[in-house]
Amino acid sequence: MRAARLTLLGTGTSTGVPQIRCDCRVCRSTDPADRRTRSSALLRFADGGPSILIDATPDLRMQLLRLGSPVIDAALITHSHYDHVGGLDDLRPYCVGHDGGFPLVCSADVEADLRARIPYCFREVVSPRVPRFAIVRAEPCEPLQVAGVEILPLPVVHAGPLIHAYRIGAFGYVTDCKEMPSDTLKRLRGVDTLVINALRHTPHPTHMNLRQALDVIQEIAPRKALITHMSHGIGLHGETSRMLPDGVELASDGMSIDISV
Length: 261
What we know:
With 261 residues, the protein is α/β, with parallel strands linked by helices. It is built from six helices and 14 strands. Strands 6-5-4-3-2-1-14 form a seven-stranded mixed sheet.
């Protein structure tokens, strides 16, 4: 295994927390852990290894500045909903020095969406003032190499087409999952650290709630699990944290932990 540092850049759902025009006690909370930008993560390998971003949210600029503008060598995209790709243009400074474009791992569906929505990022002749991406095609359950790291894309059900969770060695990252196919569940078993979504306490048509996420965690049995992609419906960070079993924790924006990958 390789040592790495995992930072949860953002841990909120598409609306963020606090939510606009909401006066609930979570959105009024003064606890910094209850303030959540849109979900993304950064995995930085130790000893000079690469740094890999997972998703590029509309809050990415602020998230990266808060972390001191870290090095990023490649990005994994789970799906093309705006809260997961709205910050791709902010990767412009990271495209410098990448002949052919900055490596962007995604499915064929995501690539088609991005080429339609931000075509200027994929032109052969580009201005140095715009980002340029090189797609690394992700196929379900087929390992691929990016920045010298083996990555396994795994399908999960969200809303409509399958989207990708990712396993990198002993680390698993799952977001926007409503249902997890049995083969994906099997391939995630044995991870040391699992990041997984739980939107709120009550059921939702396209995301797991907290009870469903805890059931999946029990099946996968990681040493440590972190909950992400939370709405204000997850409740106050302090109160909900006391409800969780050993080894499971609500993530918070900016949280960093050392993990084995």
